[in-house]
Amino acid sequence: MKNKRIKEDVEHKEWEQSFIKSKDFKKIFYYNQKTNVRFGLTFMATLIDENIIQDGILPNLLEDEFSEIEDIKQLVPVADVQICDDPSLIEQKLMNGYVMLTIETELKHFGFIAAQKEIVRGLSHPEVEFSVIGPKEAFVESMGQNLNLIRKRLPVKELIIEEFTLGSLSKTSVAILYMENITNEDNVNTVRQRLKNVKFDAITDSSYIVQLISDNSNSPFPQLLDTERPDRVAGILAEGKIAIVVDGSPHVLITPTTLVEFFSSFEDYFLNWILSSFFRLIRLFAVAFSILITPIYVATLSYHYELIPKDLMSTLITSRREIPFPPILEALFLELTIELLREAGARLPTKVGQTIGIVGGIVIGTASVEAGLTSNVLLIIVALAALASFTTPVYRMGNTIRLLRFPFLFFAELWGLLGIVFCFCVLLTHLTRLTSLGRPFLEPLYPPRVVDMKDALIRLPFEKQSKRPIFLRTKNPIRFNKKKAKKKKDIDE
Amino acid sequence: MKEQPIPERLQISPFLVFYMVMSIQIGIGVLGYQRIIAMDAGYDAWISILFAGGCIHVIVWLIYKICETAGGDIVTAHKYVAGNFIGKALSAIFIAYFILFSLTVLRTFIEVIQVWMFPEISTFWFSFAFMALCVYIIFGGFRTVVGIAFFGLVLPAYLLLTFGWAIKFSNFYNLLPIWDHSIKELLTASYHMSLAFIGFESIIFFYPFIKEPKKSQKWAHFAVLTTTIIYTILAIITFAYFSEDQLSKQIWPSLTMWKIVEMPFVERFEYIGIANWNLIILPNVCISVWIASRLIKRVFNIRQKAGVFFVVAAVLSIINFLDTRKEINTLNDYVGKMGFIFNFIYIPLLFAAVMMTKKLKKGKKK
Known about the structure:
The complex is a heterodimer.
Chain A lengths: L24 E7 L6 E7 L5 H14 L8 H4 L5 E4 L4 H7 L2 E6 L2 E9 L28 H11 L5 E8 L5 E8 L5 H12 L9 H8 L11 E3 L2 H10 L2 E5 L5 E4 L17 H30 L7 H11 L6 H21 L2 H21 L5 H14 L5 H39 L1 E2 L2 E2 L53
Antiparallel strand pairs in A: 1-2, 2-4, 3-5, 4-5, 6-7, 7-9, 8-10, 9-10, 11-12
Helix pairs in contact in A: 4-7, 8-12, 8-13, 10-11, 10-12, 10-13
Chain B lengths: L15 H10 L7 H9 L3 H26 L3 H43 L6 H17 L2 H13 L4 H4 L1 H5 L14 H10 L1 H4 L5 H4 L6 H29 L2 H4 L5 H6 L11 H31 L3 H16 L5 H41 L1
Helix pairs in contact in B: 1-6, 1-12, 1-15, 2-9, 3-4, 3-9, 3-12, 3-17, 4-15, 4-16, 4-17, 5-15, 5-16, 6-15, 15-16
């Protein structure tokens, strides 16, 4: 086989100008053993799977008889073979991992044979949205793999996958998924339109899409939910929402979403409804606590001591007796320390990060109390608040919550409790104004929709979830016929 | 010239009218109406509240009739009755009314803050921040305004329970004997309730923004009913808690009642209460600024955004000149009077005018 291999000078064609500068651009010529027709293979070595060329393409092309380019469709055992005569396609095809085949007899036509190298990371556990119960698969970077995970969970023809290519440089494939018979057509159109309007050169991750297509890009709140759990995506598709899968990103986006969805973990659906409702409420309480507790500490100790009963006051005074700073500085110092630790922990490798957490948390905390820089009551409060902020199941929202504390602190220092309520009003207004895909973000709290409350602050049992959320305006709002569901038995039947 | 109807996506569901009406009614008046009505009718004043509430139901009914007949808000009604020019001139008066209304509410709230929490807080800067927030809300459109009204009513609703602490220390025999005041005294007390009750007239201004307005009427009545019940219960608790002499010295009896609230981790509940009141005041100011700016748009045909800035600038510039308790009290009295005149005299007159015009127009057609 090797003796037939002749290297020739690359014919200088216009489209090759920049290609030949790259080291992975390969153009090799061979002769067919039977007809002695010369043919060339052009490909990007970094993008194609050498094995496909060696085992699948070359032996057939070398040994079997062919004279026309149309013949290769029968010869090559690859499903994706295309013949065309449009040179403008060459760049795109080569860059997508196709091998270009040219034949001496037919210079105007050429064939493209798919030989992409698929580097697929093995499936792993969800790390950001870990759950004790339930499936342990998480999305990976390859879009094909991710789509497979979703398709397997919803094996119906109504699940539509539409593909787009975004980014003038990155040529990222982006797919939108929806259920044809459920999802509101307007929502799908909005997503399509927004994706088409994306003007950015390199889309390297789904987070870019989040920022590029969200309704209000100046809001600290994420308006698209991202998840790494295929089960969650399947679940929301059945509800009538839309999923956006981006090639190269292990996070799939979900839209439209509401604020409460960011505080519901998918594990809520695996647990009994009483437990999951309880955990949801705990989580909401944790969020409120996390945002408000330090500002309340600052407000009460700066302005309203009278609020605190005598007995509690003496505890607070004792812990603050030696502190040389006003409460706001004390609180800012500790809050910043926690933020610092978190940031350091996030940047370092896991093992080191843990150590840093312990060193920072225990050593710095205790030391600063002993040195008389902060009061131990505040240390407890700040640590609890930080802990509470980690209960949010969606990482993005957790970040937002940590940020929100600072404006609250500022207003607490300015106007005490009044400032906190004022800041809360601003936050409330912001949230009321916010939309996700044009749907109100605070739904079902505002506009108040009692029916949608079944899966918001609490989660009612599945028998009660016979209707899809109203705010999605689905084509088919009924999930299952409640009347047909089996009636419960009466006593002693 | 046909008026453009409000597109459906900007309209609100009928039941939200309940929150709109209630949240603009409950505002600054609740903090101190008990003393004022007790001055005239003594501890029979709760009857006056019920009577005033009953009257308001009639007015709400009139308002809906006016809007239905004229097919729009008050500007349309004025045009319907008095033609374009005079109609607009009449509507323009209400711009001033609502600017004054928001001014009164805001200034009185700041006074409460200054007396109870922060004597040093700058009237101007607090109003500035407050009005900036209002601008942010109103720029979000009517739906956001309604959203704030909704939250401004629902979230602080827990405050009602805190008045329960006062019941423990109340003596309900204070209310006896019932009906030892003349009808005239009771009516005067009802009249003095107007500051606490006004606000429901805002329906006549946002009527075109209601989806299926006919369905909303029952919600408006329900809102008025709820407010009346809350006011009556609160008044009865107050009367039972304070003796008549003591009450006459309390400018804000509701706040004083909070002093008795005691929990393991909180004393002096009035701080939390007043801070929370911010959320109750917000829709009051917001809705009135929205109405004023909307009127500016309708009457002078300029952008509502410009109107909002005009109203806010007006409020911010006047608020600096109101410093003393006496001035604020006078302002409250005037706005109460204006509200009374508008609601109980002007609206029936307008109703009569609309009905007559309707008959005349029908007669012409024949």
